[in-house]
Amino acid sequence: MQLGVIGLGRMGQIVVERVLDAGHDVVAFDLDPEAVATAADAGAEPADSVADLADRLGDEKRIWLMVPAGEAVDATLDDLDPHLSDDDVVVDGGNSYFEDSVRRAEACSAAYLDCGTSGGPAGAELGFSLMVGGPAWAYGELTPVFDAVATGPDGHERMGPAGSGHYVKMIHNGVEYALMQTYGEGFELLHEGRYDLDLENVASVWNNGAVIRSWLLELCEEAFREEGSDLGDVADRIEGGSTGTWTVQEALEQEVPLPLIYTALSERFGSRADDGRFSRRLANRLRYGFGRHEVQRRD
Ligand SMILES: NC(=O)C1=CN([C@@H]2O[C@H](COP(=O)(O)OP(=O)(O)OC[C@H]3O[C@@H](n4cnc5c(N)ncnc54)[C@H](O)[C@@H]3O)[C@@H](O)[C@H]2O)C=CC1
Ligand SMILES: O=C(CO)[C@H](O)[C@H](O)COP(=O)(O)O
């Protein structure tokens, strides 16, 4: 099979390499010529524009988008659409909002698959977990590519119609936020608590047979090994947040309670206050107001 890949960053290069390793051909494009050169070094045929990539693919085009969610996906689809017909298949493997994917599937001249991708850069060796939405025939057509990009045939599934792949990935990320939050809370108590603990050792022993072992916990162990038990100069600030926000918005719309995921998202927003949390500063001052407790002042 021949696959066009557009977007050759951390994730797109892995798609290129795994598809090449499985014996398929790849045509690759990115706005960044250096990224195209890297893909070409791995064995892909370089393209210098979306139109050039489409020309090089010939009939029955199979194209994987791995660009940032949002405008980059729409811009790429605008450029691609004149070159597409209904026997072509486009996969969006990024973290797109599921309602955008439903809209794009309706507008696209090709069959459109929304594919939630989990596993991060570690997927280069392990392969990814892929959650795919869209027409069954298109999923069937792309199965050799999904087999290559995923951990194997068990690493991908068709979730349902358009939007369902990105819907499942959105909620996966909400779970990811909450898991990070709960590991964070446990390790914070261990760090602040009554014993002087080596947190790498704690994470290591938990990862060996404990109920709460997981890949995220292995990444906690790695973080303590590389940064120290006090996390050294790692800042108290968490970026990202789009998929978690969408998860909470969807929960509100469906009236499903998600207190843990909401709290984790809220902690992220709270971490970004440059000048300390206003609500905490006000609580500090109010304790003086009602109880004449000493106000803690900034240095
Ligand atoms: N990094 C991660 O762990 C994961 C990322 N994702 C999703 O995969 C997608 C890609 O993520 P990364 O590879 O991490 O991002 P990245 O920032 O490493 O790479 C994005 C690439 O897209 C290129 N690009 C941007 N706009 C373009 C356009 N209009 N046409 C062609 N190329 C364009 C950039 O030059 C860059 O090379 C995002 O939607 C992200 O949310 C999904 C799962 C995990
Ligand atoms: O999808 C992912 C992992 O599963 C990406 O790493 C994503 O960027 C994580 O979300 P956020 O940036 O909001 O932390």
Automatic annotation (TrEMBL):
Catalytic activity from the UniProt record: 6-phospho-D-gluconate + NAD(+) = D-ribulose 5-phosphate + CO2 + NADH
A Pfam entry, by short name: NAD_binding_2
Keyword tags: Gluconate utilization, NAD, Oxidoreductase
Residue sites binding NAD(+) per the record: 7-12, 67-69, 95
Annotated residues for binding of substrate: 95, 118-120, 172-173, 177, 268
Segments forming domain 6-phosphogluconate dehydrogenase C-terminal: 165-298
InterPro entries tied to this protein: 6-PGluconate_DH-like_C_sf (IPR008927), 6DGDH_YqeC (IPR004849), 6PGD_dom2 (IPR013328), 6PGDH_archaea (IPR032883), 6PGDH_C (IPR006114), 6PGDH_NADP-bd (IPR006115), NAD(P)-bd_dom_sf (IPR036291), Pgluconate_DH (IPR006183)
Domain of life from the UniProt record: Archaea
Enzyme Commission number: 1.1.1.343
Keyword Nucleotide-binding found: no
SMART domains: 6PGD
Signal peptide range in chain numbering: none
Family the entry assigns: Belongs to the 6-phosphogluconate dehydrogenase family.
HAMAP family the UniProt entry points to: 6PGDH_archaea
Assembly with partners or alone: Homotetramer.
Identification of the protein by name: 6-phosphogluconate dehydrogenase, NAD(+)-dependent, decarboxylating
Source taxonomy: Archaea, Methanobacteriati, Methanobacteriota, Stenosarchaea group, Halobacteria
